[in-house]
Design brief:
Number of helices: 5
Helix content: 25-40%
Number of strands: 10
Radius of gyration: 19 Å
Distance between the termini: 32 Å
Oligomer: single chain
Order of helices and strands: HEEEEHEEHHHEEEE
Structural class: alpha+beta
């Protein structure tokens, strides 16, 4: 994972308000801000869960590139395995694990594609070699050799030698709209704190429940 871009946070809530928080996005913002100071590498790394055509779960690490009241955004090749799975079954799960803080956040909900303008803006912020890579990699497809990938990179480097690299049509962003968010804090003797926020639909009020460890 790489190419971490600055993330815009909504209004801050102090991490000390964990169990008393009434709204999960402000709490998430506070935890992410603290993780940004304590995690050595990629505090915005998250596991993304999908299911395939047979209902078999699939999991991989991606980078959170932004979040707000609309949801949590990441970018990918839409023809990749995760892209195809989310196109067929547009629901997913996210997991943040910040080991330095002994905290986890689990998020579940439907997934939608971001707007073209948002995708263009994010692609333009990426290093040029990463942009070339987005054109060169047929993500998740069989690769005959490393040499084949390097040849594809050379071809696209020459193709886009002059001027900005345009965003590939198969590369865009996906937004997971949270319906369930669980905050987990490690405690001694496995008597952890767990708070779950849940709502029936986007824009609806959140309910909060404390869970047994």
């Amino acid at each position: 994972m790489s190419d971490t871009a600055p993330i815009e946070h909504p209004t801050r809530l102090t991490a000390d308000d964990f169990t008393g928080a009434d709204e999960p996005l402000q709490l998430f913002s506070a935890w992410l801000e603290e993780a940004t100071r304590s995690e050595a590498v990629d505090p915005n790394a998250m596991a993304l869960a999908t299911v395939d055509a047979e209902g078999l779960p699939n999991l991989r690490m991606v980078l959170l590139k932004g979040f707000d009241e609309r949801g949590f955004v990441f970018y990918t090749n839409l023809l990749s395995q995760k892209g195809k799975e989310l196109d067929a079954h547009p629901k997913g799960g996210l997991l943040f694990h910040w080991k330095s803080l002994a905290r986890q956040v689990r998020i579940r909900g439907p997934v939608e594609r971001v707007g073209e303008a948002d995708a263009d803006t994010d692609f333009a912020t990426r290093p040029r070699l990463s942009q070339i890579g987005a054109w060169s990699s047929n993500q998740s497809a069989p690769l005959e050799s490393r040499v084949a990938l390097e040849k594809a990179i050379a071809v696209h480097t020459a193709k886009f030698a002059l001027g900005p690299v345009p965003r590939p049509p198969h590369w865009s962003g996906l937004r997971l709209i949270p319906l369930v968010m669980e905050f987990w804090q490690d405690r001694p003797f496995r008597l952890h704190d767990r708070i779950e926020f849940r709502r029936n639909a986007p824009g609806r009020p959140w309910s909060k429940t404390r869970l047994y460890p």
